[in-house]
Structures are given as C-alpha cells and as structure tokens.
Design brief:
7-stranded mixed sheet; globular; about 130 residues; mainly beta; 4-stranded antiparallel sheet
Amino acid sequence: QAHLVESGGGVVQAGGSLRLSCAVTGLTFNTYNMGWFRQAPGRNFEFVSSISWNGNRRYYSDYVKGRTVISRDDTENMLYLQLNNLKPEDTAVYYCAADQWVTAENMRGMTLDSSHSAYWGQGTQVAVSS
C-alpha cells in the first residue's frame, strides 16, 4: 500500500523560504512521476510543480516559477519542494502526489479526483505572513 507523508510546512514571513518534503513508501518510487499541488481557502486546487520519474523533466506553475525548485532523491524515496521568496498568496495546504501513468507534463492539469492511478499525501500547511 502506497503511503505519502508531507512535512516541512510552517509559518514564515513574506520573503522567507521553506523546504517541503514528501516521504514515499509502498511503491517503486523511481518509476513514478511526482508532483506538488496546493489548496488555499476559497481558491481552486492547483498544480505547483512536477518532476518526471527519471528527474529529466520539471514543470512549474506560473505562480511559483523562478521561486521554486522541485527535486527527488530516489535513494531515499523522497520528493522535495524548495520554496523561496514566499508571498502571502502562497499560503495553502501543500500536497504531494505520485502517479505512474500521468506524465509530469500532464500533472499540470491534474486534480484530486482526476486520476484513478494517483496516490496522495495528507498535506502540510504553509502560512506566509505579510
């Protein structure tokens, strides 16, 4: 049974940085495309970033491009999201997802219930104060 656990969220001032982590167990991590998504109160669930199973392709939403780096460590079965120059509008619950059949590119259009093959974590809260 796949299990994804996010960590690293917290409260930070605008302009600060956070590194989110996603620990993955129960699946062959290096065969899965991985992504980060977020849900803020009153806003749609949205794509943040994704990385292909081999790490060769990375995608970012326009909201975070230039401020964010996604990475993976296949030796530790870990996914990371480095968030820099945080803004109050980055406040949200951040979720990681694993999907063997949806490409990293197509994760840009993925939602919580759009892929029957996706595994999701429970989320980690990020709050950015102005």
